Amino acid sequence: MKIGNQRGLQRIVYLIVIVVVITIIFLSLYQYRSPAVLTTIAMAGNSMEPTIMGGQTITVDNSYYNYNPLSRGDIVAFRLKTQNTSLVKRIIALPGDFMEFPEGKIMINGRIIEEDYTIEDSGDQDVSIEDLELIADMFGQDGTDIGDIINQDQNTSGRFDMIIRMLNQDGSIPQNYVIALNDNRKNIYDSRHLGLFPIDYITGKVIL
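and the corresponding structure tokens:
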């Protein structure tokens, strides 16, 4: 074999080795995930029934959104300011979604969403004291009385006035905010009563 051919073959082999090594490194980095940071919490209150029952122990993957985007339908935990627990809600709509509420229904980007996991709002509130305590801790100022929260915006029960007030002028959800609702729609202490939730408050995804 001529020297020129040998050198050409060596170059080819060398390039193949380089490509293989780079591929192995890339795949290793791509597949690497830090171990999931899992926490368990006891579900306080009835806000997520029938999906999650009051008192049920649930698992939260606190590292999930380090590697995955937030999606509609995700059940997530929001951090509280003082208590060693979390507020659990379902993500209904994301930043940039265009929102309408015809006849009390939820329309996202021109399509009414179907929800087969809810207890429908009949107009009668079904709110546990545990839920009110969590809400006071997350959104209330120091010294906020639970009774004050109960008396705020009672006319928003089953309606979306609070959400509408926080939307952009074109009806879209501002960046870094989401609509988060309870599966138990009789419990109004979600975005209907509290407005849009900051994404920064989310600590992880609930694993069912």
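(Above: one complete record from the training split.) Strands lie at 38-42, 57-61, 75-79, 86-93, 99-100, 107-108, 111-112, 177-181, 197-198, 202-207.
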